[in-house]
């Protein structure tokens, strides 16, 4: 596995291009939408028709080790969802696994070179907002890039203008029109009562948050906290892709020193299992409207 955080781990345009060209040569599908599946949400890919599946290890240039976190499969799935060509990442690369930010976001630039226009990112997250319930779906309207504050931004290093400009705008990262479509679709699909809209904060992980950290994040205006998504969104926006983000609230963070509750990955996967059908229904009914 590559050492994290060195700017020499940056990839060249030609490397991304080689991966994209290999994929274009191995599938007839020309997806306009890419879906990055979060913990336990890989089932989305199973909904695709006419699937072509590529284990990450088989794709030239793709980050080398298949994703090792339980709940993440580690393959790229091309197919049709509600008649639309899509590509799904079943399993993503996490910074806490030791991948550099450039590797974490490698697939996003490949998607761009495949001709993708819209990226849907999903994740499992802890609820910080007291009015959120376990099982709620939060439409991401903004993010706090905490690793970015600490110098871990995937755009650090040489800027290749073939992807985007040096100083990309992030105030419009989560597409307003797509958010309106999600709200409308959630109403139609009976998910309106548990759809929230809020701010996602990324921490590097892999530790869950301390009580003091949770209180801090609440004060900063974050509604959910997780260990992914933001790097992919930053790189997607840099190359002009439209972004839609969905967080599944899989647990409520602990903010009380007397609480006996403890954050754990099993609870996260259990909740995802319970709500995975709803997330899938929401996304698949959304696709034809994009
Ligand atoms: C929590 O979410 C609710 C519902 O979206 C929102 O009205 C409220 O402002 C949020 N609370 C905080 C403290 O941000």
What does this structure look like?
The structure is a single chain. The longest helix is centred in the C-terminal third of the chain and has 22 residues, at 265-286. Helix 1 packs across helix 3 (106-114) and helix 5 (176-188) packs across helix 8 (265-286). The chain has a 5-stranded mixed barrel. The chain has a single domain, classed as 3-Layer(aba) Sandwich (Rossmann fold). With 290 residues, the protein is of the alpha/beta class. The chain is built from 8 helices and 9 strands. It is globular. Residues 129, 131, 196, 198, 223 line the site of 2-acetamido-2-deoxy-beta-D-glucopyranose (NAG). 2-acetamido-2-deoxy-beta-D-glucopyranose binds next to strand 7. GO terms for molecular function: purine-nucleoside phosphorylase activity.
Largest sheet data: 5 strands, mixed, barrel
Classify the secondary structure makeup into a structural class. alpha/beta
Determine the CATH superfamily: Nucleoside phosphorylase domain
Mean pLDDT: 89
> Class in CATH?
Alpha Beta
List each distinct ligand once. Answer: 2-acetamido-2-deoxy-beta-D-glucopyranose
CATH architecture: 3-Layer(aba) Sandwich
Instruction: Assign an overall shape.
Output: globular
Helix content: 25-40%
Report strand %: 15-25%
Annotation, overall tally of beta strands = 9
Order of helices and strands: HEEEEHHEEHHEHEHEH
Radius of gyration, in Å, reads 18 Å
Structural domain tally: 1
Within the largest sheet, what's the order of strands? Answer: 5-8-7-6-9
Distance between the termini: 37 Å
CATH topology: Rossmann fold
Uncertain ranges: 1-7
Q: Given the structure, what is the number of helices?
A: 8
Keywords: Glycosyltransferase, Purine salvage, Transferase
GO biological process, one term: purine ribonucleoside salvage
Family: Belongs to the PNP/MTAP phosphorylase family.
Pfam families: PNP_UDP_1
């Amino acid at each position: 596995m590559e050492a994290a955080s060195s700017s020499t781990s940056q990839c060249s345009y030609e490397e991304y291009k080689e991966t994209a060209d290999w994929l274009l040569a191995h599938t007839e599908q020309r997806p306009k939408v890419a879906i990055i599946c979060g913990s336990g949400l890989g089932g989305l890919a199973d909904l695709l028709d006419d699937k072509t599946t590529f284990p990450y290890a088989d794709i030239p240039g793709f980050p080398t080790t298949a994703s090792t976190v339980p709940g993440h499969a580690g393959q790229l799935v091309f197919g049709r969802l509600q008649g639309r060509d899509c590509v799904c990442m079943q399993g993503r690369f996490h910074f806490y696994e030791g991948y550099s930010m450039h590797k974490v976001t490698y697939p996003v630039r490949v998607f761009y070179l495949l001709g993708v226009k819209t990226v849907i990112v999903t994740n499992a997250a802890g609820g910080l907002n007291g009015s959120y319930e376990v099982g709620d779906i939060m439409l991401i309207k903004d993010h706090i890039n905490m690793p970015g504050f600490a110098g871990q931004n995937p755009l650090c290093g040489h800027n290749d203008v073939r992807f985007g400009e040096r100083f990309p705008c992030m105030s419009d990262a989560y597409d307003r029109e797509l958010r309106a479509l999600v709200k409308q679709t959630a109403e139609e699909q009976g998910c309106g009562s548990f759809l929230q809209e809020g701010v996602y904060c990324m921490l590097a992980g892999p530790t869950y948050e301390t009580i003091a950290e949770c209180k801090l994040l609440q004060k900063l205006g974050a509604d959910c906290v997780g260990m992914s998504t933001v790097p992919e969104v930053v790189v997607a926006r840099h190359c002009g892709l439209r972004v839609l983000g969905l967080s599944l609230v899989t647990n409520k963070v602990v903010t009380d020193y007397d609480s006996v509750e403890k954050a754990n990955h099993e609870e996260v996967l259990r909740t995802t299992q319970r709500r995975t059908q709803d997330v899938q229904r929401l996304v698949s009914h959304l696709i034809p409207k994009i």
